[in-house]
Amino acid sequence: MKKTLNILSAEEHIHDGDPKVLQLANDADPLAIEVCLADIERIDLHFPKFTDGRAYSQAFLLRRRLGFTGDIRATGDVLIDQLVQMERTGFSSAVLKEGVDASDAQRQFDRFNAFYQGDAVQPAPHFAAGA
Predict the structure, then answer these.
(1) Which of 19, 68, 92, 123 is in Cβ range 3.0-4.6 Å of 62 for a Cys bridge?
(2) Measured at the alpha carbon of residue 8, what is the angle toward residues 111 and 46, in degrees to the nearest 5?
(3) Which InterPro entries does the UniProt record give (predicted)?
């Protein structure tokens, strides 16, 4: 599986108040922001702790149901073992938790290089990929 998820260190993640960047709380309904998506380039979805996965559902809704094509960025308690699932649910970038080495992330993508089911990035299931 070719990694397309852009992985950033905590130092590389900058939020400077750009009006085209939206920070969405993990308990917010993405459907409520549908009317303003055309003006947004990046949506930051926050993981307050690694056991709270509501941002996965938000990313999937933004990509598949609302057709958002901009950057969906994972922030907060982001660990390397979550990166593959983040990419599959629609995230396009992730800010690693401070102290986590970004060079270790590729091994997750090497370990899980194909999936039978479709996802937010490749909606067709594996058996239909050649059809």
Answers:
(1) 68
(2) 95
(3) UCP030820
For residue 111, the surrounding DSSP H or E stretch is: helix 106-111
Distance CA 20, CA 107 (A): 33
Q: Which whole-number Å values give the CA distances from 52 to 5, 27, 77, 86, 112, in the listed order?
A: 20, 10, 9, 13, 22
For the four alpha carbons of 41, 92, 73 and 36, in that order, the dihedral sign comes to: positive
Per-residue confidence band for 23, with pLDDT thresholds at 50, 70 and 90: very high
Alpha-carbon span 104 to 111, nearest angstrom: 12
Instruction: For residue 74, give the nearest of 108, 99, 38, 49 by alpha carbon.
Output: 49
Sign of CA dihedral 109, 114, 117, 123: positive
Q: Could you read off the pLDDT of 30-79 as tens digits, one per residue?
A: 999 999 999 999 999 999 998 899 999 999 999 999 999 999 999 999 98
| Interatomic CA distance for residues 27 and 119, integer angstroms | 22
